[in-house]
Amino acid sequence: MTDPLLPAWSEPFTGQDTGGLLRAGRVETIDREWAWGSSTGAGVRVAIIDSGLERGHPALDGRVVESVAVEIVDGEPRVVEDDAGDLFGHGTACGGIILGLAPEVELVSVRVLGSDLRGKGAAFLAGLEWAVERGVQVANLSLSSKSDALFPAFHEVVDQAYFGGVALVSAANNVQGASYPSLFASVFSVAAHAVPDPWWLYYNPAPPVEFGAWGVDVPIAWKDGGRTVATGNSFAAPHICGIVALIVAKHPGLTPFEIKTVLAAVANDPRDLSRG
Amino acid sequence: MAEDQSTNETAALRALRAAARRSDVARRIQGDVEQALLQSIVEATAALFDAEASSIALFERDPERLEFRVAAGAQGAGAIGLSVPPSHGIVGYVFSTGQALALSDVLSDPRFDRRTAERTGYVPRSIAAVPLVDGQAPVGVLQVLDKRSSPTFSLRDMELLGVFARQAAAAITATRVQRDTTLLLREVIREIGDEGMTDEAVDALVAASTVGLDRDDAVPFWRLVEHVSGLHAMTDRELTLVADILEVVSRHAARAGRRS
After folding, report:
1. What is the pLDDT of residue B164?
2. The domain that contains A115 carries what CATH number?
3. Do residues A219 and A229 make contact, with C-beta atoms less than 8 angstroms apart?
4. Interface of B with A in 54-83 (CB under 8 A)
5. In this predicted structure, what is the pLDDT of residue A1?
6. How far is the C-alpha of B217 from the C-alpha of B222, rounded, in Å?
7. What are the φ/ψ torsions at residue A23 (nearest 5 degrees)?
8. Is the residue at A21 inside a domain?
9. Are the Cβ atoms of B133 and A177 closer than 8 angstroms?
């Protein structure tokens, strides 16, 4: 029985059963084979919070299992079923990159762009909230909000995701000033590097941006079944997202900070580039 | 005491009214400073990147659209005046998300949406676009088409473009505040007013200061201001002539004033 004098916060460390503390292993024992070897992402749902997904696009390979959109009605966000596809091509690009790494994940499209611009911060927030409550394990956010008014609400939903074990992968915004949720500590913030390798990832011990992935001249899926080549942090984030999905599929129940630790352990060494 | 305060208020209101009138006159006579500033920014951008074109689209309401206001470079001119919906294309995406991005290899994709590009008379092979963010909200997009030295844009290009975008956004904010009398007064009242002043109180004071600032061009005063603003293009000799005519008119007005 738990000592009534101990605060509840100590219980996991002092109670009868400390089995909850047994974890995968020390950081140096983790390598890519352990992390995601033979994983295809099967069984993992990934939400793409973006401009929608073009279900029939060859790059998405029929992996879209659900599509919703956030509409603003009388100033209030409402989540509805969506068959508008992808208004810009960007969501499809992200989905294609993720499937390139984790071919058997299921994609959930949460379209928060393309409707009324006045409510776009609120729509983004509502879409994120919906995805977290829907029980996806990973979400890709290649967008962010600069609204200070939405800071507390974003903070709340991002914490809810973190404690609920949902990995939120957020593209860093290069525009000066704070942007949410990409600057929150609990998300996987990602910026672009120029090494043309989808598996090449960096861990940055000096945040706010913690991870680097390929984001320069990336071949991507685009609107109307097309393809193009693109550059931007928003194409780096889905690379980390795909790798996270692989890790989650192989090690269900890993928490976001454990996944970060795994990524940090298997991150590439920049010196390897010059060694050829 | 109460009387003193009301006299002070009247004097303050008179001062605000005069300021509002001067600001309006200045805005009309000065022409579009914003346009000139933005033009210099796209020219610098096109030159620095050695690009075929550079342009700035600003967000406008009713209906919501991104309107290309200035452009530079050999292939830039066709974009000016063009409007695109913010729910559309690369410029719309960058505006909606606040995320910078670049696309290349655009031409090799036959399904790429080229409608907008074709309306400008120029279909680019590569595009880089960054948002113009004023404080918390994007106000527009700065884009560069086809860097001549390379088929793609590097990360450094994107960062550099971000710096230009910050300059442009700062310029837009500054000139918009100066141009818009209501905005200007609101800023001034907030600056000098009591800290506890509510938005409603500020708005009421702004309304009281701008009442009677009739923007109807049929009002003789504004017709005169319009004429004066139209003199920009004149040579010094022509301007001297206009000044002489106005001097005669104003002497006549002074005499008429004394007689009545």
Report:
1. 87
2. 3.40.50.200
3. yes
4. 64
5. 47
6. 6
7. -120, -170
8. no
9. yes
Helix axes A151-163, A120-134, angle to 10 degrees: 10
Tell me the C-alpha distance between B15 and A21, whole Å. 71
Q: What domains sit in chain B, N to C, each tagged with a CATH number?
A: 2-30+195-229 (no CATH), 33-179 (3.30.450.40)
Q: Is the pTM of this model over 0.80?
A: no
Q: Do B105 and A228 touch (CB under 8 A)?
A: yes
Is residue B134 within 8 Å of B34, Cβ to Cβ? Answer: no
β-pairing, A138-141 vs A45-50, is: parallel
* Helix, coil or strand: residue A268: coil
Kindly give the parts of chain B with pLDDT less than 50: 1-3, 110-111
Q: Is the pLDDT of residue A14 over 90?
A: no
Residue B26 contacts A, CB cutoff 8 Å:
no
Q: Looking at the complex, does the CB of residue A175 fall below 8 Å from at least one CB of chain B? A: yes
R_g of chain A computed on alpha carbons = 19
Contact with chain A for residue B87, Cβ under 8 A: yes
Q: Residue B239: what are its φ and ψ, rounded to 5°?
A: -65, -40
Specify if A223 maps to a domain. Answer: yes
Q: Tokens 């008179």 appear where?
A: B14
Q: Give the range among A3-7, A55-59, A211-215, B26-30 with minimum mean pLDDT.
A: A3-7
Pairing of strands A106-111, A45-50: parallel
Among all residues of chain B, which has the CA nearest to that of A215?
B155
Task: pLDDT band for A226, please (50, 70, 90 cuts).
Answer: confident
Range of the domain at A238: 27-267
| Residue contact A87–B87, C-beta within 8 A | yes
The secondary element (H helix, E strand) that includes residue A64 is strand A64-73
Q: Is the peptide bond before A207 cis (omega within 30 degrees of 0)?
A: no
Question: For residue B110, what pLDDT is reported?
Answer: 46
**In this predicted structure, what is the pLDDT of residue B246?**
87
Q: Give CA A87 to chain center in angstroms.
A: 21
Taking each helix axis as running N to C, give the angle between helix B2-30 and helix B155-179, from 0 to 180 degrees, rounded to the nearest 10. Answer: 120
Domain count, chain A: 1
Q: Which residues, in sequence order, are CB contacts of A37 under 8 Å at separation 6+?
A: A250
Average pLDDT (A190-211) is 91
At B60, the amino acid letter reads: E
Would the pLDDT of A203 be above 50? Answer: yes
Please judge whether B155 and A194 are an interchain contact, meaning their C-beta atoms are less than 8 angstroms apart. Answer: yes
The 10s digit of each residue's pLDDT in A154-178 is 999 999 999 999 999 999 986 767 7
